[in-house]
Each structure stands twice: as C-alpha cells, then as structure tokens.
Amino acid sequence: ENQVEHSPHFLGPQQGDVASMSCTYSVSRFNNLQWYRQNTGMGPKHLLSMYSAGYEKQKGRLNATLLKNGSSLYITAVQPEDSATYFCAASSNTGKLIFGQGTTLQVKP
Amino acid sequence: DGGITQSPKYLFRKEGQNVTLSCEQNLNHDAMYWYRQDPGQGLRLIYYSQIVNDFQKGDIAEGYSVSREKKESFPLTVTSAQKNPTAFYLCASSMRGGYNQPQHFGDGTRLSIL
C-alpha cells in the first residue's frame, strides 16, 4: 500500500530556532518527492521537488534532502509567519501524489 | 493573475441531497485533481483528469462523480451515496505529465451536513 508518514506531528520552536521535520514513504513506481505548505483554511502551496536519493535543495531558509525512502526538511531562523502545516508528497508514475498527514509547525514569538 | 478558483467557500448539504462543488483554472493546465482533507489528516485523492473528456478514480471515489467537458473546469458532485461527506475539499491542477509537476491548489470548499 502506498503511504507517507511524517515525524513529528507537531513542532513548537521558539522564533529564531531551527525547525526540523522528516517523512518516510513507501510508494510503488516512485518518481519524485514534493514538499507543500498549508496555512489554516487555505490550499497547500508547493515549496520544492526532489528527484533522486542524495538530492539536496535550498530555497531561502528552507533546506531539504531526499534520502532513500524519506526526506528531511529544515527551516532555519523560524519566524511566526512560518507557522503552517508542512506536507511531504511522494509522486508515482501513475500520475498520483500520495500525501502524508503533515507536520504542524507553530513558532513561539 | 492565473490561479484556481473554488466555489463556494462554505457549503451545507441536507441528508439525501446531491451538491456540486465548482473548480475553475486559468493556468492552461491539462491535469486536474480533487482531494478530500479531514481534520488533522493528509489529502486523499478522489478523482483526477489528465485531459478533457477523460478522468480516473482516485483512492476514495465512492459516492462522488466528476465531469471534464472543458479544459478549465472540473466540477465535483458529492452524491447522497457519500455517507460521510463533511470535509474540506481541495481542487488542484498541474501541467500534463502531472506526476513530475507541482500541483497548484485552490483555497478549498468546506462542506458540512445540516
């Protein structure tokens, strides 16, 4: 069964800290891994995509790494506006994205 | 600005009633998707369409129906056969060959049972 699991489910860092989250996936015909951010009551927004194990990507204060069957996402110097739920989604060649349940980040000012 | 518009933002359904959720995009994307999100959960795929006049069932299609008569429109009907329809519904689109393309989401429709 295709599935994606997140760890932890909730993060509550202080402003200025580094937030660290990860996901593991089990997906047949894996193509790429994508990270999304969702603010409450809105649709998810795509952050970045990664294609092969060992791939690293930096986008502003976001740093992501694709591992074998997993991914880690770091947000440096977190700010209150970073508070959101972050989803990892594994893409298969069938055209589907499989989402995990997400990590909720709430930054304390 | 290009984007995806979902309407209405909030919708209430009576028992035994079918309701239709609207999704329109002006991104010129070929592929469109419908997801359901329950509180504290990830997104589950209901239906997807890679091209006009064609669509496939996702993981939880029972009790739902769709049509794709125009490239820019992908309405979702929640039928009375869907016994637990209360959820947040999200529509998305992507360029053709969607599995390696990011998906662009609307801001959702929240459906509740009266």
Q: How would you sum up this structure, described in words?
A:
- The complex is a heterodimer of chains A (109) and B (114).
- By secondary structure, chain A is an all-beta fold.
- Chain A has strands at residues 3-7, 10-11, 19-26, 30-38, 45-50, 56-59, 62-67, 70-75, 84-92, 97-99, 103-105.
- In chain A, strands 2, 4, 5, 9, 10 and 11 form a six-stranded mixed beta sheet that branches. A five-stranded antiparallel beta sheet of chain A has the order 1-3-8-7-6, with no helix packed on it.
- Chain B is mainly β.
- Chain B has strands spanning 4-7, 10-13, 19-25, 31-37, 43-51, 54-57, 64-66, 76-78, 87-94, 104-105, 109-113.
- In chain B, strands 2, 4, 5, 6, 9, 10 and 11 form a seven-stranded mixed beta sheet that branches. A four-stranded antiparallel beta sheet of chain B has the order 1-3-8-7, with no helix packed on it.
- Chain B starts with a strand and ends with a strand.
- The chains are: A mainly beta (109), B mainly beta (114).
Give the helix proportion of chain B (percent range): under 10%
Mean pLDDT of chain A: 94
Low-pLDDT runs of 5+ residues of chain A are: none
Overall body shape of chain B: globular
Largest interface: A-B, 25 and 24 residues
The gyration radius over C-alpha positions of chain B equals 13 Å
Q: What's the main sheet of chain B like?
A: 7 strands, mixed
Shape designation of chain A: globular
Radius of gyration of chain A: 13 Å
Structure described in brief:
Chain A has 109 residues and is mainly β. In chain A, 0% of the residues lie in helices and 56% in strands.
Q: Topology of this structure?
A:
The complex is a heterodimer of chains A (109) and B (114).
Chain A: E1 3-7, E2 10-11, E3 19-26, E4 30-38, E5 45-50, E6 56-59, E7 62-67, E8 70-75, E9 84-92, E10 97-99, E11 103-105
Parallel strand pairs in A: 2-11
Antiparallel strand pairs in A: 1-3, 3-8, 4-5, 4-9, 6-7, 7-8, 9-10, 9-11
Chain B: E1 4-7, E2 10-13, E3 19-25, E4 31-37, E5 43-51, E6 54-57, E7 64-66, E8 76-78, E9 87-94, E10 104-105, E11 109-113
Parallel strand pairs in B: 2-11
Antiparallel strand pairs in B: 1-3, 3-8, 4-5, 4-9, 5-6, 7-8, 9-10, 9-11
